[in-house]
Structure formats: structure tokens, C-alpha cells
Amino acid sequence: MWQLIKRSLFARVMIGLILGVAVGWLWPEQAVHLKPLGDGFIKLIKMLIAPIVFCVVVSGIAGAGDLKKVGRVGLKAVIYFEIVTTLALALGLLLALHGSFGEGMNVNVSKLDSAALSSYVDRAHALQNNSMVSFLMNLIPSTVVGAFASGDILQVLLFAILFGCALSMVRHSASGVITLVNEAGQVFFKLIGLLVQLAPLGVFGAIAFTTASYGLASLKQLGGLVLMFYFTCGLFVALILGTILRVVGLNIFTLLRYFKDELSIVVGTASSDAVLPQVMRKLEHLGISNSTVGLVIPTGYSFNLDGFSIYLTLAAVFIAHATNTPLSMIDLLTILGVSLITSKGAHGIPGSALVILAATLSAIPAIPVIGLVLVLSVDWFMGIARALTNLIGNCVATVVIARWEKDLDLVRARQVLRREQGYEYVPGKLPLAEQATASQAG
């Protein structure tokens, strides 16, 4: 038993989660002070995301040696993201309309407390006032150092793509720079491997704080919305993503088992940021080139938010039902269209789920924005499913685009997912990156 716990990060995270619930329930006054454990763990991981994304993208582009491939992968990623995100939005809207949750609450809008909502609405208005031109301009960092300092993934990604393309053009006279970036990437991944061992402690602190703050009884508040959201996310993963992955030639459940350690960390922290580096590493181990992983995953974290999309349509209809707001077909189409736009680029916005939901509701006059107060108390619990679905969606997206680009070793992927001897994932080992480095050195 001890050997299993020692070898399995998943087992240690589950122990941390159970202990966190117990401590938060039995000693709530002390448990609320454990929040820094969870926050500190996420900050430790986040501080390495920008340099890791830079190293992976630059190494991938320089190693590929074909700039046309970079453009193809980017275009295919955008097409895939739009199609699947639309399916997620439509599924959330469809199930929300056929569910009765929220109906019968008869909430009096005038009696809702708007104090807790003001900051989210202010940020939502600021977001709405930003034009597409402003959004595109914000992708360009004021300085290269500023992009890394702020941790803005899209800004880092833009610089990494430009730097990688330039490096690819002068690769024969800049082999030392390519080697340096490759080796720096391996060092950062090794460092992530060390930090991720703190995940059980981070999960313990986050869960203890949440249980102490909200109480076990909070799981029953607005239970219909929470259960419907989890059911919809599960249906989306099993039915839509499962079908897409089946077409590729893989099984969604074996993929979930492969990422069980990362998924367990997301459950405890309600954040997919904490596992981004490990996910990129494991996708490469699966048989996908680092150029495809480096382009699709960071972009998907901002533009392929499947769980977030389901949340927007589901929560909007719930608020309408709870406030006895009738919805016309025009209103429903508006929800779908506005959500398709507002769901993009939500990553990195403080309180992004509530801010984007407020921005979405502000564009639909029929639904009172103040109704957002109704979902505040259960947003954390819904955040777990959002983060899980977003992460799974981006893993599937990377596999699909790699297969579309003929950049996936399908035989190896099946061997890894079946956990055949010699193909198990070993932290700290990057066979594909090592092969690329060796070939460049030769």
C-alpha cells in the first residue's frame, strides 16, 4: 500500500483531497488559513508556464524547419476550435431549455444584492468596450520582458512564433541558440517535475479552505444547476469528444486514464493552469511532435474553452428561468452568438467565468444581469467541471489536429495508452524532444 502511494501521484492527491475535506469540516476556523497552500502551489506552476511555452514553441518551429507547417497547424486549430466550441454552446443551450432547473424559484430581481456583483459588471463593461482592434493590439506586448513578466500566454505565444520563425530561417548559423532553447526547455520541465510533487499539499490546502468557507451543505445550494452542468460536461466529453477521438482511432476513456494525475490536480485546485506543463510533456510522450503541442495547447487555453462555453449558455438560461424571464427564439440565438464571441480569450481575466457571463448577459436585454448573483455561491464547484472539460477538450484537440496534420504516431499512442511495457510515461523523460535534439546535433 505504501509503495502504491509512493509511486502514484494520483493516490497522493486523492489522500490530500480527502484530508482537506475532513480538516475543513472538523476544524473550519483553522482550515480557512490553509488557502495559501493551494494558491502558492498554483503560483509556483504559473511562474514557469511562460518560459516553457516559449521553449516548446520555439523548439518545435525551429525543429520542424517548415514554416508552412506552422501556418497549416494554426489554421486547422482555429477551424477545429470554432466547430467544437459551437457544439459545446449548442449542447449547453439545448439541455438547459429541456431542463426545468431554475423554474419555480420566482426570484424577485429587485431584492437581489448587487454589491457582490459590481466588480464583475464593471470588468464586463470594460471587456465589452474593447473592440476587435483593441483585442488584437493587446496581443502585442509592449516589451518582450513585459510579456513574460505579466504571464500573458497569448503575448508569449506571439513572440515565440515570431522568434521561432526567425530562428528557423537562420538555423544553420544559429545552431547554438537552438541547442540552448532545447536544453533550457528540458531544465524547465525537470523543474516542473519537482514542483508537481507538491500537488497533494496544494490540493489539501485548497479543498480545506473551500470546505471551511462554504460548508458541506453548500453542495446542496442550487443543486439542480450544478448537477445539470456536471451532467452536460460529462455528456459532452463522452459523446462529442469521445466520437471525435474514436474517428481518430483512440478511446476517450483510455486518454482520461492516461491523464488521471493531471485531472486529479484540477479537481483539487479548480484550475487547469496548474497542469499545463505536464500535459504538454505527456502529449509529446504520446507521439505528437513538440511543434504541434506547442502551438495547439497554449492557443487552446484561450480559444478552446469547451467547459466554459457550456457554462455560459447553461447559466444564462438558468438565470432566465429563475427570474421568470421568457426567452424568444431571437433571445436564444443571441445567447448562442454572443457566447461564441465572449468565450474567446477569457483565460487570464480575474474571475473570468463571472466576468464573461456578465458581459454575455449585458448583451441580452431580456435577461437581468443582476441574476448573476444567483450563481455566485456555487461558482467554485462549477469551476471544477469547467476546468476539467477545458483541459480534456484541449488534449483531444491536440490529438485530432496532430492526426489531421499526419503528425501523430498512432501506433505509439495506442501502446502508451494501453500502458504496454516500455511505453509508460516517466516524469523527466522526453523521448521525442531528445530525438529532435540529437538529430539537430548530428
Task: Output the keywords.
single chain; 442 residues; Proton glutamate symport protein; disordered C terminus; mainly alpha
Topology:
Elements: H1 2-7, H2 9-26, H3 28-31, H4 35-64, H5 67-98, H6 118-129, H7 132-138, H8 144-150, H9 153-169, H10 175-195, H11 199-214, H12 223-248, H13 252-258, H14 260-269, H15 276-285, H16 290-303, H17 306-322, H18 329-342, H19 352-362, H20 373-376, H21 379-404, H22 410-417, H23 431-441
Helix pairs in contact: 2-11, 2-14, 4-9, 4-10, 4-11, 4-16, 5-12, 5-16, 5-17, 5-18, 5-21, 6-19, 9-16, 10-23, 11-14, 12-17, 12-21, 14-21, 15-16, 16-21, 17-18, 17-19, 17-21, 18-19
Structure write-up:
The protein has 442 residues and is an all-alpha fold. The protein has a single domain, classed as Sodium:dicarboxylate symporter (Proton glutamate symport protein, Orthogonal Bundle). It has 23 helices and no strands.
Largest beta-sheet characterization: none
Large-scale geometry: globular
CATH C-level: Mainly Alpha
Measured by DSSP, the beta-strand proportion falls in under 5%
CATH architecture: Orthogonal Bundle
- Please estimate the helix content: over 70%
The pLDDT mean sits at: 78
Low-confidence blocks of residues: 430-442
CATH homologous superfamily?
A: Sodium:dicarboxylate symporter
Total strand segments: 0
SSE sequence, one letter per element: HHHHHHHHHHHHHHHHHHHHHHH
The domain tally reads 1
- CATH topology call: Proton glutamate symport protein
Q: How far is the N terminus from the C terminus?
A: 46 Å
Number of helices: 23
Alpha-beta classification = mainly alpha
Radius of gyration: 22 Å
